[in-house]
Request: fold
Amino acid sequence: MEPRTRDRIRERERMKAKETDGSTEEPNKSGSRKGLIIAFIIFMLAVNGVLIFLNFNKSAQLEEKDIAIVDQKKEIDTKNTELKAAIQELEEKKMELAQYGADTTRLHNELESVKERMSTMQNYEGAYFRVKKELEKLKYLASETEAELNRYKAQVDTLQRSNIELKSQLSQNEQSLTELKTTKEELSKKVELAASLKAENVQTFTLSPKGKEKTGDTYKVKDIDVLRVSFILAENHVAKAEGKSIVLRVTEPDGGALFDLGTGGGSFMQNGKEVFYTQKQDILYDNKSQQVTFDYKKGTPFKVGKHKIEIYSDGLKIGESSFTVN
Reply:
């Protein structure tokens, strides 16, 4: 075989061997590439899983935080409501204390200070504890105010009880004074009555124009020129021995008094009313029995009918009688 031919045969064998080696490397490279891809996919999946887990935890934490913030806001709102109610209650107690005359300057300043601090709480950050602190302060202040108010109420109750007792005592004293005054008035009346004069045995007489005297209780018109009334002032040692005015009052059948200033008539007050009388005579009374006589000349004929005779002294009626004219 020629050398050239042999070289060609060798060359072909080398090429064939080379092709065989190349076909073996291709499957190896392909398998290694697939492994890398799978590993990368697994890695990415793991990374994504971790990211998803972290995001889920973060979302849960944010949600919990939102819930906590909402709850905290609710608590702050509740505390704010309680704080406003406490302020309102203290305002009412302040007014009540003022009614008792207490000095409410300190309480007023404290409330104004709390209101001013409340107006500065614009956000919720740290507000809960601040509101809680203010509320605790107001509760303490309310306790002090309530104690002070109770002291004033106790003082008022004591004063009211004392006032009631004083009124009761005053009422008893007034009642005692009234009873004493009544008793005094009764005694005074009794003394006055005891001291008053008494006209006894009141008799009437008539004198005719001829001077003829008649006595009795019935007379004719023509027989009366002068009416004479005579009586005895009884003995009375209680009465004062002094000058006395004795008043004669004669009333006609129609009730009118025989009254003439020219014949000694006049008037006096009795129970707030003016009473007209017929004649008056001043005497000196010495506590002993004494005769008194009135002579009354009417000047005109007496009216037909029953006439009354009344004797007065010191405004009191001390005797009476009557006669009839035919």
